[in-house]
TrEMBL record, chains A, B:
This is DNA-binding LacI/PurR family transcriptional regulator. GO terms for molecular function: DNA-binding transcription factor activity; transcription cis-regulatory region binding. InterPro entries: HTH_LacI, LacI/GalR-like_sensor, Lambda_DNA-bd_dom_sf, Peripla_BP_I. Coiled coil: none annotated. Residues 11-66 form the HTH lacI-type domain.
Length: 367, 367
DNA sequence: CTGAAAGCGCTAACAA
DNA sequence: TTGTTAGCGCTTTCAG
């Protein structure tokens, strides 16, 4: 069917009504309440609409009137496109998208560039609620979201007092991983972690910075480690913890190198994400070390790539997190007090962790 | 002040203006045109706003007034969550997200479930334009989008006459791949392709169905194959072409099995996507065939997993497609006539294609 | 089953 | 610099 070449006269519901000689209500009903008018009249309305090129009720005007946007906003701290590079973020998105789809709701990715402090996009977003995924607790975008008078669900955040949240017990999960390493005999370890705050610090981290970290998830994981190792007499202040701003395998590799340079005697390299761990894995092998014979490497997240690499890690249900966040937000009808969903995690015993070799003899003759 | 209300009616720009004893314009200006009023007055406005809990101008009302939503809609044929499983789709999304981010625009994922014919979500989407990614040409959601009076860019679609589009030359790319196989000596081949229409047909495909395929991309790829092989005397009607509705490795494996059952003599299995090819690869190996010694397997797309598997395939710039689509849409200020962007592809010679046994003299064609 | 009236909350000429 | 005036396009009681 050829489309007419005429300039689209922006037909409105009112002009249609005028053309038909009926009231606006009737036209509105033709679209929204078919049972409120005779089939015959409805047919006439719809057919005249087509003839006039009336595209149906304007969604924005309808939203204004009904106070419903039919979409939820997703705020990510990273560049919008980052979400599509990190497998964990993709999993979260998938789960959230699933929940939205079930509810017939749109999902609006809000462009919140962490570099600029431009919060306007948050204000401009026509949504019925927000999901905030893993942003620093001092992020201005988060503050802007919390000021919007719509329900919000935060993910991987500390208790904000007033909003629903979903997450895992990062501290306990990491503590369990640490216990595992401790039981294997590791005492001298190094750590590679993701960014702890909005400023770039591709270097070692002081204990103060660890405790003051603005990324709840990273803070909790480091706390879990510190607690576990301190409990067996390790002075956590002496443990090299290397931070990286960019969450890439290259960063993981560089941080691993930095840690190994600082203390070549470590028997385990604990990474706070699988991506970093995969990078670290590459780096230690590049240096001729065997894993786990010469050094143990661990991750966190349980992404597929990690599984393929046989990484010892903690698996968390990223997709479920997204879905739970969506459900929480879309159910918020019955919301009375803030709700919190904590999902469970699982220690994955891969092939990258083993007991450290204490002696040269052991090194020669193997297990 | 004698305000003893307990239920605070959500403050509006008007109520703020009243409270301050200024006009609504002034308040509006305080937010949108700071240079249009004295800093002092602006400070007062903003501060009173905070006190009253006024969250700033309502985005929907603003959109209605300015006729700008600040977002573009993305229509995918698959379940919303599907987009996060297919690497090619993720790449496209990443590119599109990048373009949106550059423009400070939101990206709304429209829930368009292909099962239901529920087009309402398209009508409900408050967006300034649409990007339509790889949907069948008879998809009602696509029709609904085209009826909306906003600019639209389609991706991987035939020429719709009136809208911008971006894509690759699928037919030429597949033709080139076919030529490569032909020069290696392949004449007896089988094909595995993605769904060709909205109805499920997990079976062989007739030539008619091939030509009438509603998915432009698949139709073009099959046409490229048919043309190349016909030109060397192969009767395309005798070539087994197995279609699969679901785009998964499992589907690829099943389709490969079906083709091999039909004609165990084929020397090459040509798949119209990498995902299918990876599944086919698994299946032929499961059957004890070596690749490429016993059989050649090829894909299409050039996703990372394919590269890792050494698949012979066609690489297309999926991320660039997304970015180009976004740019086209967001530039549509200067749009006069429909524009089309065709990106280039590259034949990737992996390790899964070689001459069929018995035609050793063709091996000079090289690595 | 249909219509009249009353906004939803905001912005943008244009005046003052 | 500030205010006045008109809507943006639609939905929704509430009467008839």
């Amino acid at each position: 069917m050829a489309r007419s070449m005429h300039v689209r006269r922006p037909a409105t519901l009112a002009s249609l009504a005028a053309e038909l000689g009926v009231s606006r209500t009737t036209v509105s009903n033709a679209y929204n309440r078919p049972d409120q008018l005779s089939p015959e009249l409805r047919r006439r309305v719809l057919e005249t609409a087509r003839r006039l090129g009336y595209p149906g009720p304007d969604p924005v005007a309808r939203s204004l009137r009904t106070r419903k946007a039919g979409a939820v906003g997703l705020l990510l701290t990273e560049n919008l496109s980052y979400a599509f590079r990190d497998p964990a973020a993709i999993g979260f998105l998938e789960g959230l998208a699933l929940a939205c789809e079930d509810a017939g709701t749109g999902l609006l990715l809000v462009p919140a560039n962490p570099e600029r402090e431009d919060v306007a996009a948050v204000h401009r977003a026509g949504v019925d609620g927000f999901v905030v995924y893993s942003v620093p607790d001092d992020d201005p975008h988060l503050a802007a979201v919390l000021e919007r008078p719509v329900p919000t669900v935060v993910c991987d955040q500390p208790d904000l007092g007033n909003v629903d949240r979903v997450g895992i017990d990062d501290q306990a999960a990491m503590h369990a991983l640490a216990q595992h390493l401790i039981s294997l005999g590791h005492r001298r370890v190094g750590v590679v972690c993701m960014r702890l705050a909005r400023d770039r610090n591709d270097d070692f981290v002081t204990p103060e910075r660890q405790q003051a970290a603005h990324f709840h998830v990273q803070r909790a994981r480091l706390a879990g480690l510190a607690q576990a190792f301190a409990s067996v007499g390790v002075d956590w202040a002496t443990v090299p913890v290397a931070e990286r701003f960019d969450h890439t395998m290259a960063s993981g590799a560089a941080a691993a190198a930095q840690v190994l340079e600082r203390d070549p005697q470590i028997t385990a390299l604990i990474c706070t994400s699988d991506i970093l761990a995969l990078g670290a894995l590459g780096e230690v092998r590049r240096r001729g070390m065997r894993v786990p014979a010469d050094i143990t490497v661990t991750g966190f997240d349980g992404i597929r790539e990690a599984e393929q690499a046989g990484l010892t890690t903690v698996r968390q249900p990223v997709m479920e997190k997204g879905r739970a966040a969506g459900k929480l937000l879309l159910d918020s009808a019955e919301r009375t007090r803030p709700r919190a969903v904590t999902l469970s995690t699982e220690l994955v015993l891969g092939s990258t962790a083993a007991s450290p070799r204490g002696t040269a003899e052991e090194r020669w003759f193997g297990p």
